[in-house]
Amino acid sequence: MDAPRMNHPLEAAGADESSTIVASNDDKRTVEESGELDEEDADANAVEMAARMQWRLDALPGRPHESEPFTVFRVTGPMRDRNRHLYEPQVVSIGPFHRGTARLRAMEEHKWRYLRDLLARSSGGGAATLASYTRAAQALEPRARRHYAEPTDYLSARDFAEMLLLDGCFIIEFFLKGKDRAAEALIDAAWVIQSVCNDLFLLENQLPFFVLEHFYGLATGVLGGDDLVIGLLANYITIETPQELATAKPPDGEIHHLLHLYYHWFLPTEDATLTGDNNREAEDKAYKEWMAKPMDERVPWLLPSASELQDAGITFRAKKSPRSLVDVTFCARDGVMEIPAVESYTNRVLFANLLAYEQSRGRWALQRLMSYVTLMASVARDGRRDVDIMQRAGVFVKGDEETATFYAHLAVLLGGTTEARGPAHDNCYTDLFRDVREHCGRSWNRHRAVLAHDYFSNPWTSMSAAAAVLLLVLTVVQTVYTVLPYYDSW
């Protein structure tokens, strides 16, 4: 049996000292919690706390009351729930948000190979050196970092600059290879190029456009963004947009990133009041006009379904020569709603990210794509009958329920179902909705629609109705002639 261990005197002294320190700390904590610190200690603690917080404030970029130039956001909330595949890259990461993701590492080696190919391109008789690219990346790093809405301090200045260089040169070389029709396994594989193109237009997967402009200038010797936009990007971005290559031009003002450019060509500006981003004057004017309206007109509402609108006397037509996808109009005089034909609906990934970008532009920016999706999802929400109506009108060219499902799914991405109500001041169809509501509220329009549907929907019912009217007229005439002799005798 082991003898009990005796504590060494020094150990005992140390233990007593530790106990004293712990007790002292406990007493101090008790005093602090009870607010019984003397004035000198309280002032010292406040000064220390202020110095620590001031250091954090001094590290913030920008100046007080200066809005940050955020242009790249991460999609959050209902738009992301159960739809991560629409917003996260599947093949290649661009920018800091998805950098280092395990399933995207295979493409990192291709970035280095594309950088080597870009360096090999001649520029004005000589090749741009790697050192010129690295100097540019380091100079652009502070400005580029400020465009991301989430903190990126987990990347050092050197790592961030290297990311800008690899990702930016990959994008430039990717489009240059496509323009040159160069033999390239990555370009020639159809499924790869579609996946890469999708990833390059994700909101979370963007580089500031001025980074691409700078690297493009180093690679080609051509300065300025117009040549990059018109000479290179327009050949690819206009393929799936309503904008034609011959009429494509850069948007007014600064281009934020590739998705911003795609949005500009997907929904070209229709008039001077729809100038898009950063037009505070136009936004304030639209808001004041919205606030000046009566409450019943300010409250948002959805359109009834196509079948309900048809029962209320509204006719659908495919719009001829629309100015854009969202060029929907309603003529209250004859009850005709014209909608651009949906020949082949857009890639769902691109459409979802266009919606996400549109909603990142600001609270008062006009939400044209959101308005269009909400309108289309509401008029086609009752299934086959609505789809048939839209098909007969020439709006749904495919004529199946897949198109209606597509818009219904996009409406869910906006934060609810087609029964949800969204903001009205940024809906570009506010006046259209008001006119449709007024038209549906007139009983004569509904009765006329029922008459046309029940008695003139096909030749046989039309002939029966005409025969009935003729019989009624003959009966009235016979009655008149029967009664007239009676009155003549008087």
UniProtKB/TrEMBL annotation:
Region: Disordered, residue numbers: 1-42
Membrane-crossing segments per the record: 465-487
Keyword entries, A-Z: Membrane, Transmembrane, Transmembrane helix
Acidic residues bias: start-end ranges: 33-42
Pfam families referenced in this protein's UniProt entry, alphabetically: DUF247
Stored InterPro entries: DUF247_pln
Entry superkingdom: Eukaryota
PANTHER family given in the database record: (WILD MALAYSIAN BANANA) HYPOTHETICAL PROTEIN (PTHR31170:SF18), BNAC04G53230D PROTEIN (PTHR31170)
Name of the protein: Uncharacterized protein
